[in-house]
């Protein structure tokens, strides 16, 4: 077992991720209604079963291929965070901008704190991480190339003053806070808030706020209950700290994959937001 000592701000970060950040994904139940899955009970059941099967598949894949799944989780998080902070745009540079912005967050935190992050990676995926770090350096290379592409085509891209303020804020968070706290601050108070601001105005066109909140509460409680069960189960094989980190981040990955498909692949594509 890898011994890792967490500070009070690390436990605060894990608390924020679990109880403030994860509930933003609990709106997926309400989002499914806007996509037509509430028209029939059979469609609602199909949605729930598909969502749970997707989560289960990620957990199984992580068990057998932990390094590959961790890398895929990092990669999709880059696009999910990056595009999530941008306004929907159908031009050719939207996903490049999303990759650049998301990499600033994800790769910025990783490469600014390599020793500490490597400890977390070892807990999540074992100690054979040379291929993972090589792949992450490859993502950094593509990040630099993407920045060059955007600079060459800067006249075709609009950067608002608010966006520049957001970038400065993210850089300050990455620079002055330890990795876990930096991630928690971004995930809970930038990404999640942007998600709420974008999603809720559309949701209330299909349902009242009370129903959306009720659905979010149901999905949140289900996520927390699953996390509590997993923590209890893993505590027999790992230290409490290791078990907690595994539950939160592997659980987050299992939820992020179907969440990203639903939000970025269907919801935002349909409503152009």
Features:
273 residues; globular
- Terminal-residue CA separation: 45 Å
Order of helices and strands: HHHHHHHHHHH
Integer average pLDDT: 92
Please, how many helices? Answer: 11
Share of residues in helices: over 70%
Note the quaternary state here: single chain
| CA-based shape | globular
Q: Biggest sheet, open or closed, and with what strands and sense? A: none
What number of domains? 1
Low-confidence parts: none
Percentage of residues in DSSP E strands: under 5%
- Decide which structural class fits the backbone: mainly alpha
Model description:
- This protein is an all-alpha fold and 273 residues long.
- The protein has one domain (8-271).
- The protein is built from 11 helices and no strands.
- The longest helix is centred in the C-terminal third of the chain and has 32 residues, at 240-271.
- The N and C termini lie far apart (45 Å).
- 32% of the residues are buried.
- The model has no long low-confidence stretch (mean pLDDT 92).
Write a compact overview of the structure shown.
This protein is mainly alpha-helical.
List the helices and strands and how they pair.
Blueprint: H1 8-21, H2 28-34, H3 41-64, H4 66-84, H5 94-112, H6 114-125, H7 130-152, H8 161-176, H9 179-203, H10 209-234, H11 240-271
Helix pairs in contact: 1-9, 2-11, 3-4, 3-11, 4-5, 4-7, 4-11, 5-7, 5-8, 5-9, 8-9, 10-11
